[in-house]
Amino acid sequence: MPALNLRTAWLGVLLWLPLSHALAATPAGAVHAHQLQAWQQQFQRLPLVEQQRIREAWQQYRQLPPEQQQQLQRSFAGLDRFHRDGWRLGPRLGRHWPGLQPLFAYVEPGQQATLLALLHELDEAALERLVRLAQRTAPEQRQSLREALLALPAAQRASWLRQQAGA
After folding, report:
1. Cα(123)–Cα(56) distance, rounded to whole angstroms?
2. pLDDT digits (tens, 9 = 90+) for 71-126
3. Cα–Cα distance measured from residue 139 to residue 102, given in angstroms and rounded to the nearest whole number
4. Using CA atoms in the order 119, 124, 130, 136, what is the torsion angle rounded to 10 degrees?
5. In the 3-class helix/strand/coil scheme, how is the chain assigned residue by residue?
6. Terminal CA-CA length for the chain
7. Residues 132-153: pLDDT tens digits?
8. How many C-alpha atoms does 94 have within 13 Å on its Cβ side?
């Protein structure tokens, strides 16, 4: 598993703090039960590697002095919702979400799970190429790009992205 820098890992874990607090029998503040249940379901749908990254970051976070924890919480709270929501995809995809969002934010509900699985299967180089491709794809061409990605066998996606991104 590639190492994440601590700030990136902590940003990912901060999204899961309400769930972690509730699971650790710590007061969860104003978090509603249905929010906790939704976050828990999202967490369980993450690949095991991403779940482990969040658990490890949570352990590191818990060992920080309270002042540093509060500073990280303020930093995360200062992000706009667009960036915070991207972290729900896990630390790896959350880090890439600002670049992927134009391509994947507005998809039909029936395609969401399939596209999310596709994104989790891509390696780092392919994700970076997809970010570059997403940034230069016109809005009216995004559906075609998603369909082309879905139509490819998984083993061919990386080379196709390399050709399409020009790298």
Report:
1. 21
2. 888 887 787 887 777 888 888 888 899 999 988 878 888 888 899 899 999 999 99
3. 8
4. 140
5. CCCCCHHHHHHHHHHCHHHHHHHCCCCCCCCCHHHHHHHHHHHHHCCHHHHHHHHHHHHHHHCCCHHHHHHHHHHHHCCCHHHHHHHHHCHHHHHHHHHHHHHHCCCCHHHHHHHHHHHHHCCHHHHHHHHHHHHHCCHHHHHHHHHHHHHCCHHHHHHHHHHHHCC
6. 24
7. 999 999 999 999 999 999 999 9
8. 29
Which residue is listed with tokens 């949570």? Answer: 58
Structure tokens at 145: 């790009």
Structure tokens at 154: 């998984």
